[in-house]
Structures are given as structure tokens and as C-alpha cells.
């Protein structure tokens, strides 16, 4: 079934909108990498507080808390895992986390935990078994997340932009429209590869440079595949409108 030119153009415009949004998010993530690196370095170099800080401070203080309640919020949409911690004075502190494991999912009311306080926020929680988990305010790991997000969004955005513009600049040419689709979907592969690389780096606690070191060769393979298939589409090698062979009739 041949798709109408108007529908093809609408699809291309939709891809262009998605591409621009991805590029904006990717550039924003890239601009945040430097600040995230500086904040992480500041945290790692922060000295221990000599006494309980009475105001937000750049030193690090370990404070004992009692768990009042903890909820992973796994069944709720757009809800982060959270816990309410109580100081010995009775003052409650509510903290959120990016994920439920390894600490939040095991917390029960009246459990004792140690919270790491930096700049007036609990940035890490350690349970009685010594397991640690960073809160949503924690600075560790943000540079890697921003780098992975920038690679995923910029690579996808650029290829989706090219793949969206290509059919619009060659209106009515089925082969060029197919080539544009090839470029777009390879862009999805580029973005997915960057996200999987970030996941592998985070799961194995590899250094930040591992992300471009792993993603770079994989991206080159995807780009080589994209180029080969796009050229094949322009040449007509991917056309599916060749006449079928006559099937022998059975009596």
C-alpha cells in the first residue's frame, strides 16, 4: 500500500519536532556536565564537620536517624522512592531517592540509619548492614548521567533531524523517503546504545571516561550501517515493488 505524500510530510514534520526537542535536552545536559563535575569534586573534597552544623555548610556530617516510614512507590507513576527520617530531637526529615535499591527497599519503621548531611541536605543514607544509597540530592554520578543523556539525545536528535528533512527536500521520491526512514531509525539505535552504555557504566561503577570509550566504537558501527542502508535505499536496492514470480497453479 502506497502512503500519500501528505501523510509522509506529516510524519517527517513530527520527527523534526521530536528531533528538535531531543537536541534541546541534549545541549542542556551537555552544559550541565561541568557544573555537575565541580559539585562532585567539591563533595569528595569536603572535610568532616568538627561539630553539628547549625546552618547549611560545605563540611560533611554523619547524623543518626530513626526511620518513621519508607515507601518505594513502585506502583505509582512519576513517584520517587522516599523515606521519612526522624532526628533524636523528633524533627522529621523527608528524603527522596532515584531508585529503590539497595537501601530504601529494605527499610522498616524504627530502623536506625546514618544520614550524610552536606549543604543542609541528606545526600546519602547508610543502613545498619553498611549498605549505602545516594538520595536525590546526592552529587555523585550526576556528571555520568548528564554525559550519557547528552550523547543519547544529541546523536538521536541530529540523525532524526536529517532523516526528517530528507523526505521533505525530496518530495515525491519514494527512495529518498525510505532513505530518510533508515536514517531516523538508526538514530533511535544510536540513542538506545548510549542509554545502554550509561546503564552498564552505572551498574559496574566504571569511570566516566568508559561511557565515550564504549559508546564511540558502537556508534561508528551504527553509523556505518546507517550509511550502507541509506545508500541502498537511494539506489533502489530496498524497493519491495519488484514483480513477483508467477506461482504454479495446482490442479
Can you tell me about this structure?
The protein has 251 residues and is α+β, with helices and mostly antiparallel strands. It has helices at 5-45, 142-169, 174-204, 210-235, and strands at residues 60-71, 82-86, 92-96, 112-118, 121-126, 132-134. Strands 3-2-1-4-5-6 form a 6-stranded antiparallel β-sheet, with no helix packed on it. Helix 1 (5-45) runs antiparallel to helix 2 (142-169), helix 2 (142-169) runs antiparallel to helix 3 (174-204) and helix 3 packs antiparallel against helix 4. It is elongated.
Compose a concise summary of this entry.
The protein has 251 residues and is an alpha+beta fold. It has four helices and six strands; from the N terminus they run αββββββααα. Helices cover 50% and strands 15% of the residues.
